[in-house]
Amino acid sequence: MLRFLLTFFMVHVLGSAGISMLKPAHAEEEALVTVKVMSPDLAMKMAQAALEACRERDLQVAVSVVDRFGVVQVTIRDRYAGAHTPDTALRKAWTAVSFRTDTRTLQDISEPGAPSSGVRFVTNALMIGGGVPVEAGGTLVGGIGVSGAPTGELDEACARDGIAAVSDVLDF
């Protein structure tokens, strides 16, 4: 009852008198967050490493790296990769970041008739292998997508090789 009366007094009496109530100091601190993002140089190194991993497998692909918000940082396309591959790689990277899951897993759990099948209708989402979230210190910092190999498994392998190539920087 005392809590109710105090709250009533603070809201109705002090508030109507034009007196502002002070917020705890931590309220402002909680309103702002700090995030980690990859530098463009790191994104480029990751993309180039993924491209090289695919070349070593005699595959011509496109690679896209997005930041933690799904915004493209870099896209590169090998000379003989199909015209569709840059957009597909970007969509895979975006999907991995958006759902915080690799796209091959998403492909499996969103099969027609599955409880999660509706996610296939999300604009720009692409549920085929080749997109992998990128984490640093347990925090999502971006995603990488590869497109152009004959299978999603091969695209994903190249993406993971790209991440592995910069893991020394990501594992801080």
Shape: globular
Q: What strand order characterises the main sheet?
A: 2-1-4-3
In round numbers, the mean pLDDT is 87
Query: How large is the radius of gyration?
Result: 23 Å
> What's the helix count?
7
Distance between the termini: 52 Å
Name the poorly predicted regions.
1-17
For this structure, what is the CATH homologous superfamily of the largest domain?
Haem-degrading domain
Number of domains: 2
Beta-strand residue percentage: 15-25%
Instruction: Summarize the helix and strand pattern as letters.
Output: HHHEEHHEEHH
What does this structure look like?
- This protein has seven helices and four strands, in the order αααββααββαα.
- Helix content is 46%, strand content 16%.
- A hairpin with a 4-residue loop joins strand 1 and strand 2.
- The termini are far apart.
- It has a four-stranded antiparallel beta sheet.
- It folds into two domains: 30 residues, no CATH class; 131 residues, Beta-Lactamase (2-Layer Sandwich), CATH 3.30.450.
- The radius of gyration is 23 Å and the shape is globular.
- Helix 3 crosses helix 6.
- It is of the alpha+beta class and 172 residues long.
Topology:
Blueprint: H1 2-16, H2 25-31, H3 40-56, E1 62-67, E2 72-77, H4 85-99, H5 103-109, E3 131-136, E4 139-147, H6 152-165, H7 167-170
Antiparallel strand pairs: 1-2, 1-4, 3-4
Helix pairs in contact: 3-6
